[in-house]
Specification:
72 residues; alpha+beta; 1 helix; elongated
């Protein structure tokens, strides 16, 4: 089973910016993610066509269960 942390931001011009990280720690807390997202906003770490990340929209962990039928 694989998982991805998706962090979604609202940009300066009202757009959306999504950052995805593979295989987040199992013990990751909402506080950990919020702190990281606020740091990204404060440091202007990432930008998009609609500007820098300006606010937190949401964050979630997406889990996929992959069953291989045929593998080489």
């Amino acid at each position: 089973m694989s998982s991805t942390l998706e962090m979604n931001f609202i940009t300066e011009l009202g757009g959306r910016l999504k950052l995805s990280l593979s295989d987040p720690r199992a013990e990751l807390t909402a506080g950990d993610v919020e702190t990281a997202m606020n740091t990204i906003i404060e440091k202007n770490t990432f930008s998009s066509k609609t500007g820098d990340a300006a606010a937190i929209y949401n964050a979630r962990v997406v889990t996929k269960d992959i069953e291989e039928i045929i593998a080489v």
